[in-house]
Design goal:
Layout (H helix, E strand, L loop, with lengths): L1 H7 L1 H5 L7 H18 L6 E2 L6 E2 L11 H10 L3 H25 L4 H12 L2 H6 L3 H8 L1 H14 L2 H15 L4 H9 L1
Antiparallel strand pairs: 1-2
């Protein structure tokens, strides 16, 4: 599954292509802002460069308080390659989550792989790849469902807490509408 995903996105992986539209004009600059602050040991609160200043801590799509976003920014810096790694990693997490959900439902390896590939290349991802906040929120959907179903099946609180933590993590850098739909599911 990972090989097919990377092969399909090989131009991004090799650095000979970049995302267009919102991913380049909005989400990459957000990532650079978060990464630069992370490398300076700070969290983003304010963007002084846009529209005479904007509060960044109130927009969940920025990912100013997302541990994943901050950690990836700190590790890779505010570079184009760092952003592409972050963007593809979050997208890949959705496929991993779907694979784990399939295995939880006792699907064979090949079945979980097929479902995972179908999920990775579904319309939400391919139609909204430019919206990193959609990718972030949607990628945590199967993991949230997997952990919630594990909690219901085992009648234990730990998997339920994990489902809530994963859902909350997705809300720290995800599109609010997708976060709400995940909660409804």
């Amino acid at each position: 599954v990972t090989g097919v995903f990377l092969a399909a996105n090989q131009m991004l992986v090799r650095g000979v292509a970049v995302g267009t539209w919102d991913v380049d004009g909005q989400f990459y600059p957000y990532y650079v802002l978060v990464a630069d602050h992370a490398r300076a040991g700070r969290l983003v609160q304010w963007d002084p460069w846009s529209n005479a200043g904007l509060p960044m801590l109130g927009d969940p799509q920025v990912g100013a308080y997302s541990p994943v976003n901050v950690m990836m920014g700190w590790l890779t810096g505010g570079t184009s390659s760092g952003f592409r790694i972050y963007w593809l990693l979050l997208w890949w997490v959705g496929g991993l989550g779907m694979f784990m959900l399939g295995r939880h439902f006792k699907a064979p390896l090949w079945g979980s792989s097929v479902v995972s590939l179908g999920f990775l290349f579904c319309g939400v991802y391919t139609g909204n790849a430019e919206h990193t906040s959609w990718i972030t929120a949607f990628s945590f959907l199967p993991i949230t469902i997997w952990r919630l179903d594990a909690a219901l099946c085992s009648r234990r609180l730990q998997p339920a807490a994990e489902a809530g933590a994963v859902w909350g993590l997705s809300a720290l850098a995800g599109y609010p509408g997708v976060i709400i739909i995940t909660g409804c599911m």
